[in-house]
Write a structure and sequence with these properties.
With about 140 residues, this protein is mainly α. It has helices at about 1-25, 30-35, 50-80, 85-95. Helices cover about 50% and strands about 0% of the residues. The longest helix is centred in the middle third of the chain and has 30 residues, at about 50-80. Belongs to the SecG family.
């Protein structure tokens, strides 16, 4: 299926480039007026009116090929299974998945302080500074007045 999709993209690109080239080669409506008065286009490769028919028919065939490839690419891209479609749908699918279990917390330094037979601190000693608090997350980061 992927090979067919890639081939269709290649055919569509080649037909689009060829159609652009053919459209740029074609003469406008005013170019036939010059041929009627003896301009040099009367002696062209396809004759006085042959190039217009050949180029316009070639452009029409390439336009039909381009249109058919576009329809087939739209059909194949719609029928392909996707991982959830748009980014919003993928985010919604990811949000509904269960969250992984949190890792066990490392033991805090306070829990490693031995208790029991430790001597009491003298009355005139300065207490140890408290450990810095963990930074707040989410709404806790917004300062209040």
């Amino acid at each position: 299926m992927n090979v067919v999709f890639n081939i269709l993209v290649g055919v569509q690109m080649v037909s689009a480039l060829a159609m652009i080239g053919l459209i740029l080669i074609q003469h406008g409506k005013g170019a036939d007026m010059g041929a009627a008065f003896g301009s040099g286009s009367a002696g062209s490769l396809f004759g006085a009116s042959g190039s217009a028919n050949f180029l316009s028919r070639s452009t029409a065939v390439l336009a039909a090929v381009f249109f058919a490839c576009t329809l087939l690419l739209a059909y194949f891209s719609h029928s392909r299974p996707t991982a959830g479609g748009s980014l919003i749908e993928r985010a919604a699918i990811g949000a509904s998945a269960p969250a992984p279990a949190p890792a066990p917390a490392a033991p805090s330094p306070a829990s490693q302080i031995p208790t029991g037979n430790a001597p009491a601190a003298p009355a005139n000693s300065v207490p140890a500074p408290a450990a810095p608090a963990a930074p707040a997350s989410g709404a806790g980061q917004i300062p209040t007045k």
